[in-house]
């Protein structure tokens, strides 16, 4: 017997940062994300940023939030139709961007945010 699921998408993912305001500026000014409403739940403050039109936002979780360590996030793939074009914006802002290179999954380009988190831009190969 299968039990139906009503889940539709991931609402948010926590991105551990040391300075939430700096992280939000990086997301909006360097990556072109939209800053969204934050959540104040003392003693924590949570700011959010998301790619335009995305269903999933990043909660920029500051020190003391959930035991996260700033700079520890890896494996976050930011899907893009053109990693080559989208690498230009962070590179122009002085961010070191490695790639994109051809891989079996597509064309990833790696970079680090000011805290050392390691998201990647990824143009996926069709059919994956």
TrEMBL record:
Organism lineage string: Bacteria, Bacillati, Actinomycetota, Actinomycetes, Kitasatosporales
Pfam families xrefs: Glyoxalase
Region (Disordered): 84-128
Organism of provenance: Streptomyces cinereospinus
Domain VOC stretches: 9-124
Domain of life of the source: Bacteria
Protein name: VOC family protein
Ranges of compositional bias, category Basic and acidic residues: 100-115
């Amino acid at each position: 017997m299968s039990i139906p699921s009503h889940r539709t998408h991931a609402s948010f993912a926590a991105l551990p940062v040391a300075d939430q305001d700096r992280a939000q500026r990086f997301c909006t000014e360097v990556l072109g994300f939209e800053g969204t409403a934050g959540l104040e739940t003392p003693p924590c403050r949570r700011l959010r940023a998301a790619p335009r039109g995305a269903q999933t936002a990043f909660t920029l979780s500051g020190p003391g939030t959930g035991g996260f360590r700033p700079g520890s996030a890896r494996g976050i793939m930011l899907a893009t139709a053109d990693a080559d074009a989208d690498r230009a914006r962070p590179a122009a802002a002085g961010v070191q961007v490695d790639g994109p290179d051809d891989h079996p999954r597509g064309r990833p380009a790696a970079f680090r945010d000011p805290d050392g988190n390691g998201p990647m831009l990824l143009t996926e190969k069709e059919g994956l």
